[in-house]
Protein backbone atom coordinates (compact mmCIF):
# COMPACT_ATOMS: atom_id res chain seq x y z
CA UNK A 1 0.00 0.00 0.00
CA UNK A 2 2.81 2.37 0.74
CA UNK A 3 4.38 1.99 -2.70
CA UNK A 4 1.03 2.58 -4.43
CA UNK A 5 0.47 5.72 -2.35
CA UNK A 6 3.94 7.05 -3.15
CA UNK A 7 3.42 6.48 -6.86
CA UNK A 8 0.10 8.37 -6.76
CA UNK A 9 1.70 11.26 -4.90
CA UNK A 10 4.58 11.38 -7.43
CA UNK A 11 2.16 11.37 -10.39
CA UNK A 12 0.09 14.10 -8.76
CA UNK A 13 3.17 16.25 -8.16
CA UNK A 14 4.31 15.82 -11.76
CA UNK A 15 0.87 16.81 -13.05
CA UNK A 16 0.90 19.91 -10.88
CA UNK A 17 4.36 20.92 -12.10
CA UNK A 18 3.33 20.40 -15.74
CA UNK A 19 0.18 22.46 -15.26
CA UNK A 20 2.22 25.26 -13.68
CA UNK A 21 4.77 25.14 -16.49
CA UNK A 22 2.09 25.45 -19.17
CA UNK A 23 0.35 28.22 -17.23
CA UNK A 24 3.50 30.38 -17.09
CA UNK A 25 3.93 32.73 -20.09
CA UNK A 26 6.76 31.91 -22.44
CA UNK A 27 9.71 34.27 -22.21
CA UNK A 28 10.67 35.95 -25.49
CA UNK A 29 13.85 34.75 -27.10
CA UNK A 30 15.00 38.28 -27.88
CA UNK A 31 14.42 41.55 -26.05
CA UNK A 32 11.75 43.83 -27.47
CA UNK A 33 11.45 47.61 -27.27
CA UNK A 34 8.65 50.09 -27.62
CA UNK A 35 8.25 52.00 -30.86
CA UNK A 36 8.53 55.07 -28.65
CA UNK A 37 12.12 54.07 -27.83
CA UNK A 38 13.08 53.09 -31.39
CA UNK A 39 11.91 56.05 -33.45
CA UNK A 40 11.25 59.77 -33.29
CA UNK A 41 8.20 61.49 -34.69
CA UNK A 42 9.25 63.74 -37.53
CA UNK A 43 8.62 67.38 -36.66
CA UNK A 44 8.55 66.81 -32.90
CA UNK A 45 12.04 68.08 -32.12
CA UNK A 46 14.05 70.64 -30.22
CA UNK A 47 15.53 73.77 -31.77
CA UNK A 48 18.90 75.19 -30.78
CA UNK A 49 19.13 78.80 -29.64
CA UNK A 50 22.20 80.97 -29.08
CA UNK A 51 22.84 84.48 -27.78
CA UNK A 52 25.61 86.84 -26.71
CA UNK A 53 25.47 88.56 -23.34
CA UNK A 54 27.31 89.92 -20.31
CA UNK A 55 27.76 88.44 -16.86
CA UNK A 56 28.26 91.04 -14.12
CA UNK A 57 28.95 90.89 -10.41
CA UNK A 58 32.12 88.82 -10.60
CA UNK A 59 34.66 89.19 -7.81
CA UNK A 60 37.51 90.42 -9.98
CA UNK A 61 37.55 87.22 -12.05
CA UNK A 62 36.04 88.68 -15.21
CA UNK A 63 37.58 89.61 -18.55
CA UNK A 64 40.58 91.88 -18.85
CA UNK A 65 39.21 94.73 -20.93
CA UNK A 66 42.54 95.36 -22.65
CA UNK A 67 42.71 91.72 -23.79
CA UNK A 68 39.01 91.37 -24.66
CA UNK A 69 37.96 94.39 -26.74
CA UNK A 70 34.53 92.89 -27.48
CA UNK A 71 33.77 92.92 -23.75
CA UNK A 72 34.74 96.59 -23.53
CA UNK A 73 32.59 97.52 -26.53
CA UNK A 74 29.61 95.57 -25.18
CA UNK A 75 29.95 97.20 -21.77
CA UNK A 76 30.11 100.68 -23.28
CA UNK A 77 27.09 100.00 -25.50
CA UNK A 78 25.08 98.70 -22.54
CA UNK A 79 25.94 101.73 -20.40
CA UNK A 80 24.97 104.10 -23.21
CA UNK A 81 21.58 102.38 -23.52
CA UNK A 82 21.15 102.96 -19.80
CA UNK A 83 21.90 106.67 -20.25
CA UNK A 84 25.49 106.55 -19.00
CA UNK A 85 27.92 108.25 -21.36
CA UNK A 86 31.63 107.57 -21.15
CA UNK A 87 33.94 110.42 -22.18
CA UNK A 88 36.33 109.64 -25.02
CA UNK A 89 39.79 108.61 -23.89
CA UNK A 90 38.65 107.33 -20.52
CA UNK A 91 40.22 103.99 -19.67
CA UNK A 92 37.81 101.47 -18.17
CA UNK A 93 39.32 99.17 -15.58
CA UNK A 94 36.95 96.58 -14.20
CA UNK A 95 37.34 92.87 -13.69
CA UNK A 96 33.76 92.20 -12.68
CA UNK A 97 32.32 91.77 -16.20
CA UNK A 98 32.65 88.83 -18.61
CA UNK A 99 31.38 88.32 -22.14
CA UNK A 100 29.58 85.00 -22.52
CA UNK A 101 27.77 82.90 -25.07
CA UNK A 102 24.36 81.66 -23.94
CA UNK A 103 22.98 78.45 -25.47
CA UNK A 104 19.81 76.46 -24.96
CA UNK A 105 17.35 74.09 -26.63
CA UNK A 106 13.82 75.26 -27.35
CA UNK A 107 11.60 72.30 -26.40
CA UNK A 108 9.03 71.01 -28.89
CA UNK A 109 5.65 72.73 -28.61
CA UNK A 110 7.12 75.27 -26.17
CA UNK A 111 4.50 77.94 -25.48
CA UNK A 112 4.96 81.60 -24.66
CA UNK A 113 5.73 82.27 -21.02
CA UNK A 114 7.17 78.85 -20.24
CA UNK A 115 10.78 78.55 -19.11
CA UNK A 116 13.80 76.60 -20.33
CA UNK A 117 17.34 75.96 -19.09
CA UNK A 118 20.36 77.74 -20.57
CA UNK A 119 24.12 77.24 -20.45
CA UNK A 120 26.51 80.16 -20.04
CA UNK A 121 30.09 79.88 -21.38
CA UNK A 122 32.85 82.44 -21.06
CA UNK A 123 34.08 84.01 -24.30
CA UNK A 124 37.08 86.03 -23.10
CA UNK A 125 39.82 85.46 -20.54
CA UNK A 126 37.59 85.37 -17.47
CA UNK A 127 38.86 83.07 -14.72
CA UNK A 128 35.63 82.27 -12.92
CA UNK A 129 31.91 82.95 -13.37
CA UNK A 130 30.99 82.11 -9.80
CA UNK A 131 28.57 84.58 -8.24
CA UNK A 132 27.85 86.32 -11.56
CA UNK A 133 24.49 87.40 -12.93
CA UNK A 134 23.57 87.20 -16.59
CA UNK A 135 21.94 90.34 -17.93
CA UNK A 136 18.99 90.21 -20.32
CA UNK A 137 20.16 88.24 -23.36
CA UNK A 138 18.01 87.55 -26.44
CA UNK A 139 18.33 83.98 -27.75
CA UNK A 140 18.14 83.62 -31.53
CA UNK A 141 17.31 80.67 -33.73
CA UNK A 142 18.87 79.67 -37.03
CA UNK A 143 16.48 82.02 -38.85
CA UNK A 144 17.71 85.05 -36.88
CA UNK A 145 14.47 85.55 -34.90
CA UNK A 146 14.37 85.91 -31.13
CA UNK A 147 12.60 82.95 -29.51
CA UNK A 148 13.57 83.39 -25.85
CA UNK A 149 15.17 85.85 -23.42
CA UNK A 150 17.60 84.69 -20.73
CA UNK A 151 18.57 86.30 -17.43
CA UNK A 152 19.50 85.12 -13.93
CA UNK A 153 22.21 84.01 -11.53
CA UNK A 154 24.84 81.65 -12.91
CA UNK A 155 25.48 78.39 -11.05
CA UNK A 156 28.78 76.61 -11.73
CA UNK A 157 30.07 73.18 -10.73
CA UNK A 158 33.80 73.97 -10.65
CA UNK A 159 35.91 76.32 -8.60
CA UNK A 160 39.33 77.94 -8.67
CA UNK A 161 41.60 78.94 -5.78
CA UNK A 162 45.10 80.34 -6.06
CA UNK A 163 47.85 81.91 -4.04
CA UNK A 164 51.25 83.39 -4.71
CA UNK A 165 52.92 80.11 -5.71
CA UNK A 166 50.14 77.58 -6.23
CA UNK A 167 46.77 77.29 -7.90
CA UNK A 168 44.06 74.63 -7.93
CA UNK A 169 41.20 74.31 -10.39
CA UNK A 170 38.38 71.80 -10.00
CA UNK A 171 35.94 71.31 -12.86
CA UNK A 172 35.37 74.13 -15.37
CA UNK A 173 34.61 77.38 -13.52
CA UNK A 174 34.14 79.32 -16.76
CA UNK A 175 30.96 77.40 -17.73
CA UNK A 176 27.73 77.67 -15.77
CA UNK A 177 24.05 76.92 -16.02
CA UNK A 178 20.85 78.79 -15.21
CA UNK A 179 17.94 76.49 -14.41
CA UNK A 180 14.74 77.87 -15.93
CA UNK A 181 16.79 80.92 -16.85
CA UNK A 182 15.06 81.78 -20.14
CA UNK A 183 11.47 82.69 -20.94
CA UNK A 184 10.06 81.58 -24.30
CA UNK A 185 8.76 84.60 -26.23
CA UNK A 186 7.92 83.07 -29.62
CA UNK A 187 6.27 79.75 -30.50
CA UNK A 188 7.07 77.55 -33.47
CA UNK A 189 3.87 76.75 -35.33
CA UNK A 190 3.39 73.03 -35.91
CA UNK A 191 -0.18 71.77 -36.39
CA UNK A 192 0.31 68.12 -35.50
CA UNK A 193 -3.40 67.27 -35.33
CA UNK A 194 -4.01 68.48 -38.89
CA UNK A 195 -1.38 66.29 -40.55
CA UNK A 196 -2.71 63.72 -43.07
CA UNK A 197 0.21 61.40 -42.34
CA UNK A 198 3.06 61.11 -39.87
CA UNK A 199 6.56 59.79 -40.43
CA UNK A 200 8.61 57.89 -37.88
CA UNK A 201 12.37 58.43 -38.02
CA UNK A 202 14.34 55.43 -36.73
CA UNK A 203 17.19 56.26 -34.38
CA UNK A 204 19.22 53.34 -35.79
CA UNK A 205 18.64 52.80 -39.50
CA UNK A 206 17.80 49.21 -40.41
CA UNK A 207 15.59 47.66 -43.09
CA UNK A 208 14.40 44.81 -40.87
CA UNK A 209 13.50 47.06 -37.95
CA UNK A 210 11.57 49.43 -40.23
CA UNK A 211 9.59 46.52 -41.67
CA UNK A 212 8.84 45.10 -38.22
CA UNK A 213 7.57 48.47 -36.99
CA UNK A 214 5.24 48.77 -39.98
CA UNK A 215 3.99 45.20 -39.50
CA UNK A 216 3.34 45.78 -35.79
CA UNK A 217 1.28 48.91 -36.48
CA UNK A 218 -0.72 47.26 -39.29
CA UNK A 219 -1.44 44.16 -37.17
CA UNK A 220 -2.61 46.30 -34.26
CA UNK A 221 -4.94 48.50 -36.33
CA UNK A 222 -6.11 45.73 -38.67
CA UNK A 223 -5.58 47.88 -41.79
CA UNK A 224 -2.53 48.76 -43.85
CA UNK A 225 -1.62 52.11 -42.35
CA UNK A 226 2.16 51.94 -42.00
CA UNK A 227 4.63 51.58 -44.85
CA UNK A 228 8.44 51.49 -44.62
CA UNK A 229 9.88 54.02 -47.07
CA UNK A 230 13.57 53.48 -46.39
CA UNK A 231 15.68 51.99 -43.56
CA UNK A 232 15.25 55.20 -41.56
CA UNK A 233 11.62 56.14 -42.19
CA UNK A 234 8.21 54.56 -41.68
CA UNK A 235 5.22 56.55 -42.98
CA UNK A 236 1.91 56.33 -41.12
CA UNK A 237 -1.36 57.31 -42.77
CA UNK A 238 -3.84 58.64 -40.24
CA UNK A 239 -6.91 56.31 -40.11
CA UNK A 240 -10.34 57.95 -40.54
CA UNK A 241 -11.28 57.39 -36.88
CA UNK A 242 -8.22 59.40 -35.79
CA UNK A 243 -8.63 62.34 -38.17
CA UNK A 244 -8.04 65.54 -36.22
CA UNK A 245 -6.70 63.60 -33.25
CA UNK A 246 -3.19 62.55 -34.20
CA UNK A 247 -2.08 62.64 -30.57
CA UNK A 248 -4.44 59.80 -29.68
CA UNK A 249 -3.25 57.82 -32.70
CA UNK A 250 0.41 58.19 -31.73
CA UNK A 251 -0.40 57.29 -28.13
CA UNK A 252 -1.88 54.00 -29.32
CA UNK A 253 1.03 52.89 -31.49
CA UNK A 254 4.05 54.17 -29.55
CA UNK A 255 3.55 51.49 -26.87
CA UNK A 256 3.70 48.58 -29.35
CA UNK A 257 6.56 46.17 -28.74
CA UNK A 258 9.00 45.51 -31.62
CA UNK A 259 12.16 43.43 -31.70
CA UNK A 260 14.88 45.64 -33.22
CA UNK A 261 17.50 44.19 -35.52
CA UNK A 262 20.95 45.69 -35.99
CA UNK A 263 23.89 44.86 -38.18
CA UNK A 264 26.82 43.05 -36.60
CA UNK A 265 29.35 45.70 -35.64
CA UNK A 266 32.45 46.11 -33.49
CA UNK A 267 33.23 49.58 -32.16
CA UNK A 268 36.85 50.29 -31.21
CA UNK A 269 38.18 53.39 -29.46
CA UNK A 270 41.96 53.13 -29.75
CA UNK A 271 42.58 56.15 -27.54
CA UNK A 272 40.92 54.66 -24.45
CA UNK A 273 41.13 50.96 -25.37
CA UNK A 274 37.35 50.47 -25.29
CA UNK A 275 35.86 47.64 -27.36
CA UNK A 276 32.11 47.12 -27.84
CA UNK A 277 30.76 44.11 -29.76
CA UNK A 278 27.23 43.56 -31.00
CA UNK A 279 25.35 40.38 -30.17
CA UNK A 280 25.34 39.15 -33.80
CA UNK A 281 29.13 39.17 -34.25
CA UNK A 282 30.28 35.81 -35.65
CA UNK A 283 33.67 34.47 -36.72
CA UNK A 284 34.84 31.61 -38.89
CA UNK A 285 37.18 28.95 -37.54
CA UNK A 286 40.45 30.67 -36.80
CA UNK A 287 43.49 30.11 -34.57
CA UNK A 288 44.98 33.12 -32.79
CA UNK A 289 48.33 33.47 -31.02
CA UNK A 290 49.86 36.54 -29.43
CA UNK A 291 53.27 37.09 -27.90
CA UNK A 292 55.06 39.96 -26.21
CA UNK A 293 58.72 40.71 -26.81
CA UNK A 294 60.43 42.39 -23.85
CA UNK A 295 63.95 43.85 -24.09
CA UNK A 296 65.62 44.76 -20.79
CA UNK A 297 68.80 46.87 -20.62
CA UNK A 298 70.48 47.48 -17.27
CA UNK A 299 73.54 49.61 -16.57
CA UNK A 300 75.72 48.92 -13.51
CA UNK A 301 79.11 50.66 -14.02
CA UNK A 302 81.99 49.52 -11.84
CA UNK A 303 84.73 51.76 -10.43
CA UNK A 304 88.31 50.43 -10.57
CA UNK A 305 90.65 52.17 -8.16
CA UNK A 306 94.49 51.72 -7.92
CA UNK A 307 96.24 50.40 -4.84
CA UNK A 308 97.29 52.88 -2.17
CA UNK A 309 100.47 54.89 -2.88
CA UNK A 310 100.48 53.61 -6.48
CA UNK A 311 100.64 55.71 -9.62
CA UNK A 312 97.47 54.26 -11.17
CA UNK A 313 94.26 56.09 -12.05
CA UNK A 314 90.66 55.60 -11.05
CA UNK A 315 88.75 54.16 -14.02
CA UNK A 316 85.01 53.66 -14.46
CA UNK A 317 84.33 50.38 -16.22
CA UNK A 318 80.94 50.12 -17.96
CA UNK A 319 78.89 47.01 -17.31
CA UNK A 320 75.81 46.58 -19.50
CA UNK A 321 73.41 43.65 -19.40
CA UNK A 322 70.90 43.08 -22.20
CA UNK A 323 68.14 40.53 -21.81
CA UNK A 324 65.43 39.50 -24.26
CA UNK A 325 62.26 37.75 -23.05
CA UNK A 326 59.48 36.59 -25.32
CA UNK A 327 56.18 35.57 -23.77
CA UNK A 328 54.97 32.91 -26.13
CA UNK A 329 51.23 32.40 -25.91
CA UNK A 330 49.63 29.20 -27.09
CA UNK A 331 47.29 29.16 -30.05
CA UNK A 332 43.66 29.75 -29.08
CA UNK A 333 41.09 28.12 -31.34
CA UNK A 334 37.93 30.11 -32.08
CA UNK A 335 35.41 27.80 -33.73
CA UNK A 336 33.09 28.58 -36.61
CA UNK A 337 29.84 30.44 -35.88
CA UNK A 338 30.39 30.87 -32.16
CA UNK A 339 28.27 33.21 -30.08
CA UNK A 340 29.46 36.52 -28.69
CA UNK A 341 30.07 34.99 -25.25
CA UNK A 342 32.16 32.17 -26.74
CA UNK A 343 34.15 34.63 -28.82
CA UNK A 344 34.92 36.76 -25.76
CA UNK A 345 35.87 33.68 -23.73
CA UNK A 346 38.18 32.47 -26.47
CA UNK A 347 39.96 35.80 -26.79
CA UNK A 348 40.18 36.20 -23.03
CA UNK A 349 41.85 32.80 -22.91
CA UNK A 350 44.91 34.39 -24.46
CA UNK A 351 45.40 36.51 -21.34
CA UNK A 352 45.80 39.80 -23.21
CA UNK A 353 44.73 43.37 -22.58
CA UNK A 354 42.39 45.60 -24.57
CA UNK A 355 45.22 47.13 -26.64
CA UNK A 356 46.36 43.75 -27.94
CA UNK A 357 42.76 42.63 -28.40
CA UNK A 358 42.18 45.54 -30.77
CA UNK A 359 45.06 44.37 -32.95
CA UNK A 360 43.79 40.77 -32.90
CA UNK A 361 40.27 41.80 -33.98
CA UNK A 362 41.66 43.89 -36.82
CA UNK A 363 43.88 40.97 -37.90
CA UNK A 364 40.92 38.57 -37.87
CA UNK A 365 38.94 41.06 -39.96
CA UNK A 366 41.84 41.37 -42.42
CA UNK A 367 41.88 37.57 -42.75
CA UNK A 368 38.17 37.64 -43.69
CA UNK A 369 37.24 35.41 -40.77
CA UNK A 370 34.97 37.82 -38.89
CA UNK A 371 31.38 38.58 -39.94
CA UNK A 372 31.03 42.11 -38.67
CA UNK A 373 31.93 45.68 -39.51
CA UNK A 374 34.74 47.21 -37.46
CA UNK A 375 34.33 50.93 -36.78
CA UNK A 376 37.30 52.75 -35.29
CA UNK A 377 36.38 55.91 -33.41
From TrEMBL:
GO terms for cellular component: bacterial-type flagellum basal body, distal rod, P ring; outer membrane-bounded periplasmic space. GO terms for biological process: bacterial-type flagellum-dependent cell motility. InterPro entries: Flag_FlgI. Coiled coil: none annotated. The keyword Signal applies. The keyword Signal applies. It is found in: Bacterial flagellum basal body. One of its GO terms (molecular function) is structural molecule activity. Keywords: Bacterial flagellum, Cell projection, Cilium, Flagellum, Periplasm, Signal. Residues 1-31 form the signal peptide. The basal body constitutes a major portion of the flagellar organelle and consists of four rings (L,P,S, and M) mounted on a central rod. Assembles around the rod to form the L-ring and probably protects the motor/basal body from shearing forces during rotation. Belongs to the FlgI family. HAMAP family: FlgI. This is Flagellar P-ring protein.
Amino acid sequence: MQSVFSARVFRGACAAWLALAFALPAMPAQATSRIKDLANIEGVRQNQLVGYGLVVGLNGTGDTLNNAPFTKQSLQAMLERMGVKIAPGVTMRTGNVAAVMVTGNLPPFGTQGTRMDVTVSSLGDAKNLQGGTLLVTPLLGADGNVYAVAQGSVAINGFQAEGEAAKIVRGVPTVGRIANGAIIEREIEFALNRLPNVRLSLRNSDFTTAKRIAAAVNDYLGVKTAEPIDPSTVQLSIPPEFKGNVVAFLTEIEQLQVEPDLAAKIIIDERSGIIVMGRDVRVATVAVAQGNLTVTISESPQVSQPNPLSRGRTVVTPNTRVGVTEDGKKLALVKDGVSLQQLVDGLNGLGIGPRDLIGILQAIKAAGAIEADIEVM
